[in-house]
Write a structure and sequence with these properties.
- The chain is α/β, with parallel strands linked by helices.
- The protein has 3 domains: 2-14 and 522-633, Golgi alpha-mannosidase II (Immunoglobulin-like), CATH 2.60.40; 20-37 and 190-517, TIM Barrel, CATH 3.20.20.80; 54-186, Galactose-binding domain-like (Jelly Rolls, Sandwich), CATH 2.60.120.260.
- The protein has an 8-stranded parallel beta barrel with strand order 2-14-17-18-19-20-21-22, surrounded by 6 helices. Strands 3, 6, 7, 9, 10 and 12 form a 6-stranded antiparallel beta sheet that branches. The chain has a 6-stranded antiparallel beta sheet with strand order 26-28-29-34-31-32.
- The longest helix is centred in the middle third of the chain and has 18 residues, at 354-371.
- It is globular.
- Bound molecules: alpha-L-arabinofuranose.
- Alpha-L-arabinofuranose binds at residues 25, 27, 217-219, 350-351, 383, 437, 480-481, 491.
- Alpha-L-arabinofuranose (AHR) binds at residues 25, 27, 217-219, 350-351, 383, 437, 480-481, 491.
């Protein structure tokens, strides 16, 4: 029989409390159209096609004009606005289509707001929400406009739920109005913050209990060219002053073009830090290191011109941690957070490689370590887990005594099953490993055929077992990408899928969650003796940890094969089991099983009592399963 021996009385290395985290990038409508709850697309008319997302509404009797203008704008960072002029024979104006529609719920309230300036006459403005079938869901009238830019707002309460509503902004009578920053936000946001985040999506993150949040990317940190890189300083302060930028996922894949994908930065660096605090995750911001995406232009900032980039990194640390009296600490305090955010890690570049990266990393590391020796730096090792770029990066970064090296891997499930022992031979005295981006690809990387199925989730679970068993060298890991909008994605697979009203976690989501909430704080040695004549040897893996707080042993077992495995379990060193041992099972009928909006919990953890009364017992691990056993031991 297969035997699993856990050496309960020989606790090994401590496990980083921040070991299992999440990686957020604005891809697949992850921020605008996703986590950031704004319902109006192109609210500031700053898309290069200023009317993208907007339509003229002109019933037959109506007469009027709409015009995008830039004279005397509301704000210099946001120079375009719309003038609506009506002759007054009928309602006349514009409608916004939202991000693939606007998801609104009956019984909830939505705050409309806009910067408006009276241009002529004394018009009344009708703000209306229409459902996808043309039903009026609610409307409200605003009047008495000032000849100066001013913010006006009103609340709409739709009479029914609609995933694809539209917002209408119409003049009721003759006159002209200038409008800008047209916004519609659910009042119910995460922590009810005005202009905040989608509650259901943040809840999904909170439920993962992530140890860290890596943000804001990903390739968007690099930009396809340097002028399109992510610049954190442009993402803080009043939203109307955050300058719009094209999202590189707008045009990256010819097979998935998304011409309406831009970054409003409504979810900016302050909000990222706040989100980390809300969900108890360590912030791990990634900063551009003077290199554009090497899959695109690969543009480089000359070494002698790198200082402003390094200064951005130093200022970011001050923004997060500096006292209120410091320049950037004062800005954080002014935004409502006088206390520091306790930043402890910073990533230098995303998925960089080659000598140009090493040279730039070294400059950043020198400057940052001189001023902030306590900050742990995360260095890049390229996009692949074992190619020559990876080997080169490791060799050089080891010489530079880098703290943490970020490995990335998008590969077939086989790769993950075959690499469970990858870290067994890593040098214990070199840099720590951060598996910063990984996901099993059922087809191949960047293929639209990739599925978030059970087999991929089990492959990731097996690999995570390997990381856990090597928790003395692997300090952190995160799946990628995190979110995808079902109607606007560029990349799959993804951890969490949403549409305008719904969300579900994939089998991979539940794997991440099971590791995170069953982390334990000390590794326990596990010896696995596989029954050689069964096929199960190929995809059967186990790791164990101890949770000092509850006194439990946490055993994780992946059976990725198509036959159940009955194993003898020896909890060596334990005299008796205590409490109520528990089994948490993630399983499915077949490897291709998936979750969906209609069946969000088809593959989801099931908890049951584990009926055992001795530290030596047999247990059958079902085919295609991931099991977590929590057993109190004395
Ligand atoms: O996760 C999607 C992309 O994959 C990330 O932006 C990048 O870092 C990697 O190539």
């Amino acid at each position: 029989m297969t035997t699993i021996t856990v050496q309960v009385d020989q606790p090994g290395p401590a496990i980083n409390p921040a070991m299992w985290g999440v990686f957020f990038e604005d891809i697949n409508f992850g921020a605008d159209g996703g986590l950031y709850a704004e319902l109006v697309k192109n609210r500031s008319f700053e898309f290069p096609d200023a009317m993208m997302g907007w339509f003229k509404i002109s019933p037959s009797k109506a007469r009027g004009t709409i015009e995008v203008r830039t004279d005397r704008p509301f704000n210099a960072a946001n120079p375009h606005y719309l003038r609506i002029t009506s002759e007054g024979h009928d309602l006349f104006g514009v409608a916004n289509e939202g991000f693939r529609g606007m998801g609104v719920r009956e019984g909830e309230s939505y705050r409309f707001s806009a910067q408006i300036r009276l241009a002529a006459g004394d018009p009344k403005l009708r703000i209306a929400l229409y459902g996808s079938d043309g039903t009026l869901l609610d409307s409200v009238c605003i009047s008495g406009f000032s000849p100066d830019w001013r913010k006006y707002s009103a609340v709409l309460r739709p009479c029914s739920t609609d995933p694809r509503a539209k917002l209408y902004v119409l003049l009721e009578n003759a006159g002209a109005l200038d409008i800008d920053m047209v916004s519609l936000f659910p009042e119910k946001t995460w922590k009810n913050r005005p202009g905040g985040l989608r509650t259901d999506l943040v809840q999904m993150l909170a439920d993962l209990r992530p140890g860290f949040l890596r943000f804001p990317g990903g390739c968007i940190v690099e930009g396809s060219e340097l002028d399109k890189r992510y610049q954190w300083k442009n993402t803080i302060g009043p939203v109307e002053e955050r300058k719009l930028l094209i999202n590189r996922w707008n045009y990256e894949f010819i097979h998935r073009p998304t011409p309406d994908y831009y970054q409003s930065f409504g979810l900016g660096f302050f909000e990222f830090f706040q989100l980390c605090e809300d969900i108890g995750a360590e912030p791990l911001p990634i900063i551009n290191c003077g290199m554009a995406c090497q899959f695109n232009s690969g543009e480089l900032v000359p070494i002698d011109q790198l200082d402003p980039y390094i200064q951005d990194a130093l200022d970011l640390i001050e923004f997060a941690n500096g006292p209120k009296t410091s320049t950037w600490g004062a800005k954080r305090a002014a935004l409502g957070h006088p206390k520091p955010f306790n930043l402890r890690m910073l990533g230098i570049g995303n998925e960089q490689w080659g000598p140009q990266y090493i040279e730039r990393y070294a400059r950043f590391a020198d400057a940052i370590k001189t001023r902030y020796p306590e900050i742990q730096l995360v260095a890049a090792a390229g996009p692949e887990p074992a190619d020559s770029r990876f080997q080169f990066a490791w060799e050089k970064l080891r010489e530079l005594k880098a703290d943490i090296i970020d490995e990335h891997c998008y590969a077939k499930p086989e790769w993950f099953f075959n690499n469970v022992h990858r870290y067994d031979s890593y040098d214990r005295n070199g840099p720590k490993v951060f598996m910063g981006e990984y996901a099993a690809q059922s087809d191949k990387v960047v293929s639209v055929k990739n599925r978030n199925n059970l087999e991929c989730a089990l492959a990731e679970a097996a690999y995570m077992i390997g990381m856990e068993r090597n928790a003395d060298v692997v300090c952190m890991a995160a799946y990628a990408p995190l979110f995808a909008h079902a109607d606007a994605w560029q990349w799959r697979p993804n951890l969490i899928w949403c549409d305008n009203l719904r969300v579900f976690g994939t089998p991979s989501y539940y794997v991440q969650q099971l590791f995170s909430i069953n982390r334990g704080n000390r590794l326990l040695p596990v010896n696995l003796e596989l029954l050689s004549e069964t096929r199960s040897g190929q995809r059967f893996f186990a790791s164990a940890t101890r949770d000092d707080a509850s006194g439990e042993l946490i055993l994780k077992v992946v059976n990725g094969d198509d036959a159940p495995v009955t194993a003898m379990l020896n909890l060596a060193g334990a005299k008796e089991v205590t409490g109520n041992p528990k089994l948490i099972l993630l399983a499915g009928a077949k490897p291709s099983d998936e979750n969906s909006f209609d069946e969000p919990k088809r593959v989801a953890p099931q908890t049951s009592v584990l009926s055992i009364d001795s530290p030596h017992f047999t247990h059958t691990f079902p085919a295609f399963s991931f099991c977590v056993l929590r057993i109190g031991v004395r």
